[in-house]
Write a structure and sequence with these properties.
Two copies of one chain form a homodimer. Chain A is of the alpha/beta class and about 350 residues long. Chain A contains twelve helices and twelve strands. In chain A, α6 packs parallel to α7. Chain B binds a DNA duplex (30 and 30 nucleotides) through α2 and α4.
Chain lengths: ~350, ~350
DNA sequence: ATCTGAATTTGACGCGCGTAAATAATTAAT
DNA sequence: ATTAATTATTTACGCGCGTCAAATTCAGAT
């Protein structure tokens, strides 16, 4: 590394003995220049430590190398995990991932879309808030920017959707619970997104298929504080007495975590062993659910597959010019994770 | 909103009947133009929906309005929470927060610093990895970019540090534990950052001050999977038998969560009531620790204060031109959160 | 040595905006 | 109405790079 800083590409090109347009071409695609000149540029690169000015680059490129990642709630480790995986893959493919969280708020989500628009990203991976989303705003956004939706579906919006097969996963755990004890009742999550309703319906269908009467416990409470909802509503339900079943299937793990706390507080022993008053199961295989007491029986979502397939779909979309021939929906199956809670 | 899109500031200025330089001035500071012209611009803004091209703006400004936020591990809800608070405050102050997570990896952290450098941010709020940080790289970075460190201290680096007063908080909970039962032994976290060592030392000092013999339980394991470390090491320690005390103070809540799982698995009842074999306490007041079974007694870090003061310090720093007269360190006290686990 | 297609160089223009200096218009106070 | 101070406009240049057309050089094969 030499002493003085390089100011611009002009200067770097001069120092490496190559013309600026060729250097520019190199940075757009190192393979587009002759191997010998590529070597010379890379040698100079080591000595002078130069990087093109991103702002100038992005101003002049029709499309940037940015990829927007939008999640509804980053304080949920599920989204933190999935965002991490997506980031990694974008970087590996030579893109610049930019992460946003709507923090459960429609206004914030809309602002993010606005910001994103002016960033002119090559594409966007969007896990929308769901019910709280401004459908019109999201739709307009998707018209301008190549977007793949994931986790939470909004019918007809975006070029593709990647998520998990709630019908399969809920069906599977319902069947498991029925085989191993009392048929479960369903502890619903606040209907923040379509997954809430899909899971409820999947539960009802599975129960009816198996010849049992479904019981859905509706919860009061909204927003993304699922643990709190699970806890307060769990206490309410337990205190009220008369649960239709000793087995509770929760719409997601965070709800189950809150419910476990409520059961503990009420002195109800949870588990599938003898002496247990309650079985509790969740959905998602949240990063912390293996450390609950007792560890949570749940269905794991295929994080890697969802993240990976979302990204690949977006890359294909970008290469195809931003418009897909048809909107494709991909659902990944869940995997039963048997632990001690049910 | 009129039909056709505005291409640039020139066009927008023409349509609103104002000269471009004045419009430019407006966007830099709406109050820097006469109220009457401001009105005219804002009226036009409603009709035409124009936004300056960020890339062009950032290329020409000496300093951008970007603020980098770097955390070591975003899948930890503690950092997700604090990042959220910081983001909000930056936006309110008219800045563009850009969030990065090092995902516990030195290479990633270094790449982030590199990217950040070329983003020419007005300032950076950095919670470094700690021990895993490339000290030299961070130091060089801080020389070029106004940076406030938070959460994890690196002596002498950055223009300021904001964190929690481990000595106070650990001292307080040690004293509480001693007053209410057996003096605790200390379940150490993997020494990923200085907080690990500071907390251990604070524990030892507090115990000696109170006339007790400190016992530190060293853990094997590294990285940021604290729950896993707490769980596996907890099982190991319990199986080995001969714990020096029935009270365990964990270096942080995530470790305690893992330890709670281990105790549960081993059939040890945790809590401060009768019939309990173990008391477990944590540190941080992790968002989930009120939902553990039993709920975790811990020390809450003052998230808001740490986030708020970090941001304010950075803003002052930016206004002062990026260099502080002296490096100031601010530590916030923790608050004892008594729950059922100890 | 000659040819050919590909790679490179040269020169020039454009992107959208910040900013500075000089000039003109507006405001407020005398 | 006159003056001084503030605010706008005009004009012009610069930022760092993408990209295009034309001219040139290159590598490899004949």
């Amino acid at each position: 590394m030499d002493g003085h800083k390089i100011r611009n590409m002009e200067e770097f090109a001069a120092l490496s003995g190559i013309s600026r347009p060729t250097v520019s071409k190199y940075f757009n695609d190192p393979n587009s220049v002759r191997p010998s000149t590529r070597k010379r540029i890379e040698t100079a690169l080591e000595r002078y430590d130069y990087r093109p000015n991103i702002y100038a680059v992005n101003q002049n490129r029709r499309l940037t190398k940015n990829i927007g990642i939008v999640v509804p709630y980053l304080a949920d480790p599920f989204f933190a995990e999935i965002a991490r995986t997506i980031e990694r893959r974008c970087l590996d493919a030579g893109f610049w991932p930019i992460l946003f969280s709507a923090h459960g708020d429609q206004g914030v989500e809309n602002n993010i879309l606005d910001s994103l628009r002016s960033l002119r990203p090559a594409g966007v991976l969007l896990a929308p808030l769901g019910r709280a989303s401004d459908r019109k705003a999201v739709e307009l956004f998707c018209r301008d920017v190549p977007t793949v939706l994931f986790d939470s579906e909004i019918e007809g919006i975006g070029e593709a959707f990647v998520g998990s097969d709630n019908s399969q996963s809920i069906g599977m755990i319902v069947e498991y619970l029925c085989r191993t004890g009392e048929p479960p009742c369903f502890f619903e999550m606040p209907p923040v997104n379509p997954n809430a309703n899909k899971r409820r319906r999947a539960y009802v269908q599975a129960m009816e298929r198996l010849g049992h009467t479904p019981h859905v416990i509706h919860v009061n409470g909204s927003g993304w504080n699922f643990e709190e909802v699970g806890h307060s509503e769990g206490k309410r339900v337990i205190e009220a007495g008369g649960l239709p079943s000793d087995t509770l299937l929760c719409s997601n793990d965070r709800l189950a975590i809150g419910l476990l706390a409520a059961a503990y507080e009420k002195g109800l022993r949870v588990g599938h062993g003898p002496g247990c008053a309650l079985r509790i199961a969740g959905h998602d295989d949240h990063p912390f659910s293996r450390y609950t007491c007792p560890p949570l029986t749940t269905v794991s979502q295929n994080y890697d597959a969802i993240a990976g397939h979302s990204v690949e779909t977006l890359f294909r979309l970008i290469e195809a010019g931003g418009k897909a021939k048809a909107r494709e929906t991909t659902l990944f199956e869940g995997r039963l994770v048997m632990r001690l809670s049910a």
